[in-house]
Amino acid sequence: MRIPVQINESSAEPLYHQIETQLRSLIVTGQIAEGTLLPSIREFSADLKCSVITIRRVYQDLENEGLLRTRQGTGTFVTKVDTDDREAYKKQIVLEAVRELMDTARSVGYAPDELRQLVDETLREAERK
Amino acid sequence: MEHAVLEWRNVVKKRDRMTLGPVDLKLYENYVTALIGRNGSGKSTLMKLATQLIHPDSGEMAWFGETYSGELPVEVRSRIAYVPENFIAEEDGLKMDEVAEFRASWYPKWDWQRYEELLHRFDVPGGKKLNKLSKGQRRKFEIAVALATRPKLLLLDEPSSGLDPFAWKTMMNEIRRCVDEDGATVLMSTHIVEEVRRMADYLILVEKGRSLGMLEKDSLLDRGREIWIARDDELLEELPAVVESAIESEGMVRFVTLDYAGAAALLEEAGTKPIRVRALELDEMMEHWMNGGISVDTL
C-alpha cells in the first residue's frame, strides 16, 4: 500500500519526526485500520525518498508506543488503538493547531480578545452553512 | 550489532594521476551507500579495489568480516558483482548468452529466470553480440548479468550513464529488489543527485583521493537550513555553523546554518521565532560537505 504521508521539504522539523507525526495521526484517527499491513521499510523509504534508517526509526518508535507490531517474516501491522487514546490524541492535534493560531495572531499583533472574537465569528459562520 | 560487508583501514593506492587514501570505510549489511565526489576524486579506483581488480599499496581490507592475504577465494568472489563504468573490450565479440553462460559457471547462485526477466524488463533484444548493442543496451545487459548472480555485495560504478529516464527508473527498482530480496549491500558511485535521493541510505564523499567520511543521508539533510529572522546582530554572531548570511531588509536577516539543531536551540532560548525556514536541497548539502562545511565523526 502507499501511505499518504507527505514530506514538507521546507519544514523545520527533522524528516523522521514529520513522517512519524503523520503516520501516528493516520493510525490513531483510524484512517489506517487496525490490522493493516504497512509497506516494508525499504518500500516505504523508496516511496518517500528517505533512508531506511529513518523509516526503521519511525516504525520502532510507533512500535514502542504500541501502535504497530512487527511479526518476523510477515511485516509490520497496525495494532488496536483504544478509544481513550484516540480521543486524547484528537484533542492533542486540535490543541496544537490552536497554539499555532495563537502564535500567528501574536506575530501580527492581534490581541487575545480580537482573536476570540474572530474565532467566534468564524464558528458561527460555519454553523450557519 | 550491524555487520560490515566491506571494511577498510588506511587503504592507500597510488595511481598515475592521483593517490587514493588513506581511506577508512565501512559498508553496513543490507544498506545502499552512494559514493559521491568530483570527477577524478578516486571513486573508480575505490570501486576497483573493492572488487580486487587492483590491489592496495598498503592498508587493511576485509570482505564479509574476513581479511585475505592475496586473492579472494572463489567462494567470496562469487558473492560480489561489479558493473564497471567502462566495459571490458575482450567480451565485445561474444554473444550475450555466451557471456551469461560464462558468468553462470562462476556464480553458483546464478539465476537464469531472473536473467531472462531482467532482459525483458530492460527491453534488451536477445541473442546479440555485445559490440552490436547500443551504449545504453550494453549497460542494461551488464546490470542484468550482475543482478542475476544474486549478489551479496553489489558494486556499481556510475550505473546510470547512457540510460534513458525510463530504463533508469526500471533499473533503480530492480536494484532495490536485489537489496530487499537478496539481502544485498550496495555501493554505487554516482553524479546524479536524484539517484542519491532515491536510493541511498548512506553517503561516502571522496575529495581529491581522501575520504571525507560517511553520513546517513537523512541526517545530512536534517543539518542544513536557510532561516530568515528579525535582525539581531548579536544573536547572529552566536549562531553555530553559519556559512552564509545577509541582511535582506532593514529589519530582517537571512542565514544558512549547517547545524540546525544547535541553531534552533539557540533561537528558542533567545525567544526568536523564525520568519521562514527552508531545508537545503541534497545537492546544496553535498556541496557544503565537499567544501569542508560539515564535520563527520570518523569510523
In the CATH hierarchy, the third-tier topology of the largest domain in chain A is known as Arc Repressor Mutant, subunit A
Gyration radius of chain A, to the nearest Å? Answer: 18 Å
Largest sheet of chain B: 6 strands, mixed
Structurally, how many domains make up the residues of chain B? 2
Q: Which outline of chain B best applies? A: elongated
Spatial ordering of strands, largest sheet of chain B: 6-7-8-3-9-10
Identify the overall geometry of chain A.
elongated
Total discrete domains of chain A: 2
Brief synopsis:
The complex is a heterodimer of chains A (129) and B (299). With 129 residues, chain A is mainly alpha-helical. Chain A contains five helices and two strands, in the order αααββαα.
What would your notes on this structure say?
The complex is a heterodimer of chains A (129) and B (299). Chain A is mainly α and 129 residues long. Chain A folds into 2 domains: 15-78, Arc Repressor Mutant, subunit A (Orthogonal Bundle), CATH 1.10.10.10; 83-128. Chain A has helices at residues 15-28, 41-48, 52-64, 83-107, 112-128; strands spanning 68-71, 75-78. In chain A, β1 (68-71) and β2 (75-78) form a beta hairpin. The mean pLDDT of chain A is 90. With 299 residues, chain B is an alpha/beta fold. Chain B folds into 2 domains: 4-219, P-loop containing nucleotide triphosphate hydrolases (Rossmann fold), CATH 3.40.50; 225-279. Helices cover 35% and strands 28% of the residues of chain B. Chain B has helices spanning 43-50, 74-77, 96-106, 112-122, 135-148, 165-182, 193-199, 217-223, 233-238, 260-270, 282-290; strands at 4-14, 19-28, 32-36, 58-63, 66-67, 80-83, 153-157, 185-189, 202-207, 210-216, 225-230, 242-249, 252-257, 276-279. Chain B is elongated, with a radius of gyration of 22 Å. Classes of the chains: A mainly alpha (129), B alpha/beta (299). The A-B interface holds A 9-12, 14-16, 40, 42-43, 45-46, 49-54, 103, 107 and B 31, 176, 179-180, 197-202, 216-218, 221-222, 225, 260, 264, 273-274, 276-279, 281.
